[in-house]
Amino acid sequence: MIIDSVAMTAVAGLGVALGIMFLIWLASLLLRDASLVDRFWGFGFVLLAWFWWWSGSRDAIALIPVVLVSLWGLRLSTYLSWRNWGHGEDYRYREMRDKHRGHFWWVSLFTVFVLQGVIMWVVAMPLMVIGHAAPDMSGPWPLVFLIAVMLWATGFIFESVGDWQLARFKADPANRGRVMDRGLWRYTRHPNYFGDICVWWAYWLMSLPAGGWWTIFGPALMTFAIIRFSGVMLLEKGLNDRKPEYADYVRRTNALIPGRPRTSMSRNEGEES
Question: Domain for residue 124, yes or no?
């Protein structure tokens, strides 16, 4: 019965995730902008977390992660909307639109919106466990929960401060063609991605008192996607191709985990994204 209950809760969440993406897809058709999916990515997790909590245990302790998800998701969606405002559709979707032409409307539904809805649902499995069952706050679990909250705070700071520092840097015309190697970017080439990874592993830790150990594939998938698919490797390939000077920044700065900058033989500076 418990397994059936969890399965029903998970399936209901999949329906919510796909419903969210379907509505965003309809909006993208009206606005001819498929990159809306990126702007509402974080907000989708907010809706999922609240749905699972409201239809589940409604436990006071479980409400803490839901509030943290809300802070993270609303910040991310607000930031991406502000950053991309007035810039039109992202080049990745423009290339897809040019390739598929008249068929793009339905191709985008499945290859962009449904796909991201499923990925969102899989990654959010720790949030499902948190909302479905009241966490066990006996024994060592309060300490685990506290460590998770501290990890979340670390990730949120790196992600939000890193985005803010980069936005300020790029807003100054004097920094055109230069590497952003100040602030958090001095210690890691991707403080925002590092912070995002920390946040998702924190949610998994928060799910452990509710029996969510089996949802480890959620943060693992997010980590893999950030490092190998949609984040670090994709971004750095473009920078290395366009700006040979970026290689010097790579030599002296850790990719993800913050660390002390290494001494570099070169003082040339390139361009950060």
Answer: yes
Q: Residue 155 carries which side chain, given as an amino acid letter?
A: G
The answer to the question of residue 75 being in a domain is no
CB contact at 8 A, 224 and 211: no
Tell me if residue 88 falls in helix, strand or coil.
coil
Quote the number of domains for the chain: 2
- Residue where one domain finishes, among candidates 99, 119, 134: 134
103-127 pLDDT tens trace? 999 999 999 999 999 999 999 999 9
pLDDT band at 186 (very low <50, low <70, confident <90, very high): very high
Token readout for 31 is 């606005």
Structural domain of 223? 135-273
CB distance 263 to 252 below 8 Å:
yes
CA 112 to chain centre: 16
What's the pTM?
0.90
